[in-house]
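Sample entry follows:

_____
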Amino acid sequence: MSKSIKLKDQVYQKIFNEIIEGHYAQNQIITERELIEKYGVSKSPVREALIELCNEKVLESRPRLGYQICPISIMDISDTLELRIILETAALEQTFSHLEDSYIEQLKANISESSKMHHEKNIAKHWSGNISFHLLLCSFCGNKSIYQELERALKFCSRGASQYFLSSWKKRRETTAQRHILLIEAMEKRELESAKKILREDILDLKREIVEDLVD
């Protein structure tokens, strides 16, 4: 049973990554049959993965047709980024109340590992590293509800980034973790307000790139 669950998770991640990488267009219909053939797996893990993606509103079931890639509006992205600011700065405040050097060392290790993927210019890997950093930072506050809500918001942002600036990202997007490094430095100095400001700017960078670039 555990093997089946693991296979479902693998199929889920493959579908999600291919959406992020632009292999599937927004509103495109995909089917169980094509995924079974593509991934060389049985019907069960594909169906389970599709159900989970529907629950997360990544896909929408279309009876007798298949599953449609859900589009994301600019307003949805903007609202989600504002939610991230609220969640992540609140979590950071809680973390500072019991901040340990071990937390900082874990964040440094995370950046070091993620930097290995940055040179590949792969948006799925870039977002995997980015999500990993922000969830690790959030985990230190010890609030599971905040963590779970942030995880959903980060996944949503990764899809929005893919939908709106995938082609331009490949050409010009810098994948350094400069703000993450500055955030860690502020944490080392125990400067909460500075750390919160850097974190807000890090989140708003995405808003500027996706939302404001389109307006221009």
